[in-house]
Design goal:
121 residues; mainly beta; six-stranded antiparallel sheet; 6 strands
Length: 121
């Protein structure tokens, strides 16, 4: 299942589970199909804003640009050549999972991770 081909318009973000190295997004699509997006080897997240509505406009995944301000900051704070005890390395590919809500026209939430899976429930 290709995440960039799923129609997330009017889907509901039902739950976000955050663990040390994993974030799980539980989503109910407009056709009542339930899916989970599991983000692993988390690098970080920003702009995650949940105010009064959980209706999605879209979710897209792109390779994170090394020019991205968030990624630059992480690489400044950590040695990007280091291999950490948990097997993480900033040399590995980083994905930018972009979440756009209907009610926040100009704000996109980002989850930066090194691996993700999509599961139908």
């Amino acid at each position: 299942m290709n995440i960039n081909q799923i129609n997330f318009a009017d889907a509901s973000l039902k739950k976000i589970e955050i663990e040390y190295n994993k974030i799980i997004l539980k989503i109910l699509l407009d056709n009542d199909q339930k899916i989970e997006i599991e983000c692993n080897n988390i690098v970080g997240m920003d702009n995650l804003c949940l105010w009064d509505e959980n209706i999605l406009e879209s979710i897209k995944v792109f390779p994170a640009s090394k020019d991205n301000a968030f990624i630059k900051k992480i690489m400044q704070n950590y040695d990007n050549d280091a291999l950490y005890d948990n097997g993480k390395s900033l040399k590995n590919e980083i994905y930018d999972i972009q979440i756009k809500f209907n009610f926040l026209a100009d704000l996109v939430a980002h989850i930066y991770c090194q691996d993700y899976t999509i599961n139908e429930k």
